[in-house]
Amino acid sequence: MRPEDADRLVVFVAGLSRATLAYRSLGPVVRMRDDVIRRGAHVDYLDELALVALAGDDIAGLVRYVRDPEEPEHAEVTFTIRDDHQSEGFGRLLLEHIAAAARARGIRVLEADVLADNTRMINVFLGSGYRVETGPPGQIVHFEIAIDPQALAVA
């Protein structure tokens, strides 16, 4: 993600269904303001990183991590895949790329909160080959994904 991607990011978010926005935001969202969306194109590439998957010139998927300042080896990770590209493998692809980038920046654990009925994202994490720990069952499932490359190789 680069600052010049801001307008493309606005188009991406505008094209998401309410269901996809709710999965991303862990609850209902009516609309996101364009200026807030544009700010998402500005990352520092160390403590905050966003990667995009493109379909042609359009964003098909987005993954972002934000490092936990209190636990610098941990980062919160979020995924958003455009509705017409869900179930095409973009989530797995973006997980691999963000995990490699995070490892290179000293992050060892990615944390994610996922609505319990978001089975596609849950399956991405559980099928990743990484060591995954989940929190107690509820409406929101908390994942801690140890992005140790050896775990993936063993799997």
**Anisotropy-based shape:** globular
| Low-confidence residue ranges | none
Strand adjacency order, main sheet: 1-2-3-4-6-5
Overall average pLDDT: 91
- Our measurement of the CA-to-CA distance between the termini, rounded to an integer number of angstroms, reads 30 Å
Note the total helix count.
Answer: 6
Largest sheet: 6 strands, mixed
Rg to the nearest angstrom? 15 Å
The percent of residues in helical segments reads 25-40%
Q: Pairing-aware structural class of the strands and helices?
A: alpha+beta
Strand content: 25-35%
Counted beta strands: 6
The H-and-E topology, N to C, reads as: HHHEEEHEHEEH
Describe the structure.
It is a single chain. A six-stranded mixed sheet has the order 1-2-3-4-6-5, with helices on both faces. The chain has helices at about 5-15, 20-25, 35-40, 90-105, 120-125, 150-155; strands at about 50-55, 60-65, 75-80, 110-115, 130-135, 140-145. By secondary structure, it is an alpha+beta fold. Helices cover about 35% and strands about 30% of the residues. It is globular and about 35 Å long. The protein starts with 5 loop residues before the first helix and ends with a helix.
